[in-house]
Hints:
- The chain is an alpha+beta fold.
- The chain has helices spanning about 90-95, 105-140, 230-235, 250-260, 290-340, 345-365, and strands spanning about 15-20, 20-25, 30-35, 40-45, 50-55, 60-75, 80-90, 145, 155, 165-170, 170-175, 180-185, 190-195, 205-210, 220-225, 240-245.
- Among the domains are: about 15-150, PH-domain like (Roll), CATH 2.30.29; about 165-285, PH-domain like (Roll), CATH 2.30.29.30.
- The protein has a four-stranded antiparallel sheet with strand order 1-2-3-4.
- Keywords: Chromosome, Coiled coil, DNA damage, DNA repair, DNA replication, Nucleus, Transcription, Transcription regulation.
Amino acid sequence: MNAFPVSPISPCGLFSLAVRPKGNLEAHTNGLRFISTRGEMVDIMYANIKHAVFQPCKSEIMVLVHFHLKNPIMVGKKKQQDIQFFTEVVDASQAVDGNRRSMYDPDEMDDEQRERQLRKRLNEAFKDFCRKVENVARKNGYTLEFDIPYRDLGFMGNPNKEMVMIMPTLNCLCNLTETPFFVVDLSNVDHVHFERVTFMSKAFDMVLINKDFTKQPWRVDMIPNEEKDSIQEWLTDMEISYTEGPMNLNWKSIMSTVVGDDRFYMDTEEDEVTQKEAGWEFLRMFGRDDGSDEESEEESGYSENSGQEESEEESEEEEDFDSEDDDESDFDADDDLEEQGMDWDDMEREAAADDKRKKRDGDEDDRPQKKKRRR
C-alpha cells in the first residue's frame, strides 16, 4: 500500500530545494515526500512531526523549512531527528565576497534590486507552501502548525563550537542556519541556570536542564551580558524558572545527585522536619558560601587588629598633641621676650651708639705707635 496516496488534485510543493542532494518537496494526505534529483525519496509523516519551523530570509543567505521529529528516521545511512529543506537566496561564496563595486554603480544597484526581489519571491513561496501544508494536514485529521522565529528576541551564543544567532519560537529555542542544528523543545526544559554571572565577566553561560534528569542539560556558552535581562524576561513569559551563579558547575555530578533524591521538590528531608532548599533553589547556594567566608574573615581580621590599630591611632594623637603643646610653649616664650625687650626707638639709639663706639675703636687701632726713648 502506498504510504502517500495521490490526491485527486495536484499536490502543493516546493521545487529546486536543497537537502543535500537537491530535490522537490511535496505535501500529500498523510505526510511530506522529498524526491531528490537522483530519484531518492525521504518520507516525513505528519504524525511524526513534533515541531515545524518556517524561517524567512532576511539577513541570512537562505530561506528554509525545518522539521523536528518525534522519532528519528533514516536519511541515507544515518538516523536523523532534524530534517531541513532550504533554498539559497545568495550563493555562499558571493555572500562572503567583500569585493563590492561603487554604491552608485548601475550594475551593483541592479544586482541588489534582483536580490531583494528574489528574497521576497522565495519568502512568499515558502510561506504559501507552509499554509497549504497546514490546510492539507488539517483536512486529513492532523495538527500541524509552522512556527516563525522571533528575531527581536534572538541573541548570539555558542551551543556547539561557534558563535551563532539563537532565536526562540513559540515552542523551541533554536539555531537552524548552521550545522549541527540546535533545537531545544521548551516543553522538555525543567529549569534554566545562568553560570559565570559576575560584574567582571563580559559574557555568561546558559544551562537548560532537561525534565528527564538522566539526560545531560543543553548548554549555550558565551552569551553577551547585555542579553541577560531580555532572556530572563522571555523565560518569565514562558513560565520557566531560572537561577544564576558566579561559577561553572559539574552538571554530571549534580544530575546524578538529583536523580537519587526522592524528595527533590520538597523543602524538608526524609524526617519531614529538617529544612532544605526545594527543587533547583539549591543552585543559588553555589558561590554564596565563598562570599560569606570572605566577609567573616574580614570581620575577624578587623576584630583582631582593631585594638592594635586603635592604640596606634591614640599614640599618634598623643604625639601630635605633645608637639602642639611644644609649639604653643615656644610661641608663648617669644611673646614674653617681646614683652620684656626694648621698643624700636630704643633699639635704633642703641644701634647708633654701638656704631659710634666701633668706629672710635677702629680709629684708635689705626694710629701709629710711638717709639720708646732710651734713657
